[in-house]
Amino acid sequence: MLIKRAAANDCLPSEITPPEIFARRREFMQFSAAALASGALGALLPSAEAAEKLAGKPSPLSTPESPTPYKHVTGYNNFYEFGTDKEDPAANAHLLQTQPWSVSVEGLVKKPKTFDIDQLVKLAPLEERIYRLRCVEGWSMVIPWVGYSLAALLKQVEPTGSAKYVEFISAVQPENMVGVQRRVLDWPYVEGLRLDEAMHPLTLLTLGLYGEVLPKQNGAPVRITVPWKYGFKSAKSIVKIRLVEKQPLISWEKANPREYGFYSNVNPTVDHPRWSQARERRLGEFTKRETLMFNGYNEVASLYAGMDLRKYF
Ligand code: MTE
Q1: What pLDDT is recorded for position 54?
Q2: From the CB of 81, is ligand 1 less than 6 Å away?
Q3: Residues 6+ apart with CB under 8 A from 120
Q4: Which of 38, 177, 295, 297 is positioned for an S-S bond with 266, CB 3.0–4.6 A?
Q5: Does 46 contact ligand 1 (Cβ within 6 A)?
Q6: Which of 82, 313, 119, 106 is closest to 219 using CA atoms?
Q7: Ligand 1 atom index nearest CA of 143
Q8: What is the pLDDT of residues 197-233, one digit of tens each?
Q9: Domains in the chain, start-ordered, CATH in brackets?
């Protein structure tokens, strides 16, 4: 995000085909059934049981918009641990080691605990949440995520009264992550939310997309998705969640405090120094559309009542 680049790839009109999305979902269901029968899914997914759950129940919190084609969702990514070009994560993330994996939830909590992926998958019913993702660079997508509200996980560890913020820490695997060898950011990637933002039902602990476990370039095996904030608030491949009293220093703010703030709510009226935030280009579309306040998730507005969102950008 620190680097200036040309506009996103252009697509052929023939690529804007929402039916492909539904075909793909059907394909996945057929594949799951066949793989379950043959026992092959175990190699791909945390457990055969998880495969059924990843098919996900449609959530009422989903946007009714058509999802962005799978190839954009998994081929046009920001994951600086694997390089700074949009195509780098898809090309390099296969080296990420995701097994075994655990997430420790610690800090100002009564019951700190480390969860492995099977435990996370079973912790709460998985839902398919179709959310908009708006990147600070001016592009956006609609993604059918699979997961459940992060609140379900946080409740397990019982935050104490002094916990005010939640810090998310991504994995660092220097030998597997080509981007980590360059000091573009101070690794590990760190993100944070205020506790009430983290507990908001829209904040998703994400284990999959398009009915599959998360592809590595999208933050396997577990990430956070915060749909009303710019994409960088959604930390990928997390290994630690820490409940803290003071506002955490997030990676982008540390790298460039003039350009990136802690809150980073999608806000068409507050421009980034290098990019207007008034409009956006949905991947797979030609015409730009207006960016909506809080990315259209107006139900979060009360979290910021009385705050000057120019100051707390
Ligand atoms: N998480 C980590 N660990 N490293 C990153 O570089 N990039 C962020 C966010 N999470 C990033 C990250 C940015 S800038 C965006 S826009 C989203 O991931 C992109 O998510 P996606 O590639 O799944 O669309």
Answers
A1: 76
A2: yes
A3: 103, 153, 205, 207, 222
A4: 295
A5: no
A6: 82
A7: 24
A8: 999 999 999 999 999 999 999 999 999 999 999 999 9
A9: 54-304 (3.90.420.10)
Distance 179 CA to ligand 1 centre (A): 13
DSSP state letter for 297: -
Q: Is 79 in the pocket of ligand 1 (CB under 6 A)?
A: yes
pLDDT digits (tens, 9 = 90+) for 28-62: 444 444 334 333 333 344 443 333 347 799 999 99
Region of 85 on the Ramachandran plot (φ > 0 left; ψ -120 to 50 alpha; else beta):
beta
Q: Whose CA is nearest to atom 19 of ligand 1?
A: 78
Least confident segment among 1-5, 11-15, 206-210, 249-253: 11-15
Task: Please give the structure tokens belonging to residue 207.
Answer: 């284990």
218 close to ligand 1 (CB < 6 Angstrom): yes
Q: Would you state the pLDDT for residue 2? A: 59
Closest residue to atom 10 of ligand 1, CA basis: 235
